[in-house]
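Example 9 (inverse folding). The structure is encoded as follows.
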């Protein structure tokens, strides 16, 4: 009977040991379950963000110029602005619809280089002061006025 007794004592020890570990390990198991749930939520969010970025990348692969905006830094007279813009529009309208990556910044810088527009009794020389190139191109322009010198010069 001694073997049966040893087996009984062994099983009793296993049961007592397992029962005493539950309070010790139970709190840690609960913490780990909460951490697992939090990590699962983080993973789900990261996967959603990745899908959004992949979709956005597809639409950004070949962005094109949608518009060209400009501002005259030193022209306050509305009538003069209108006449200057009449001459500027044909120069920049060819940029709309072109791929942004394919735009040559030198081309944009050279749009107004050596241009003189005769409006009324004065000649105006437009100068590009700043440009932001993207899906929307923004040009900051200044114009220098001088008295007209003879027949009108076209662009």
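The amino acid assigned to each position is listed next.
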């Amino acid at each position: 009977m001694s073997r049966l007794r040893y087996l009984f004592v062994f099983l009793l020890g296993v049961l007592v040991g397992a029962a005493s570990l539950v309070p010790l390990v139970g709190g840690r198991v609960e913490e780990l379950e909460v951490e697992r749930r939090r990590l699962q939520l983080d993973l789900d969010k990261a996967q959603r963000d990745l899908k959004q970025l992949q979709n956005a990348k597809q639409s950004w692969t070949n962005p094109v110029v949608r518009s060209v905006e400009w501002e005259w830094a030193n022209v306050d007279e509305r009538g003069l602005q209108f006449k200057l813009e009449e001459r500027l529009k044909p120069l920049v309208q060819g940029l709309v619809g072109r791929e942004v990556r394919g735009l040559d910044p030198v081309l944009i810088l050279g749009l107004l280089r050596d241009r003189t527009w005769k409006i009324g009794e004065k000649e105006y020389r437009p100068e590009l002061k700043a440009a932001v190139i993207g899906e929307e191109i923004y040009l900051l322009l200044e114009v220098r006025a001088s008295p007209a010198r003879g027949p009108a010069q076209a662009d």
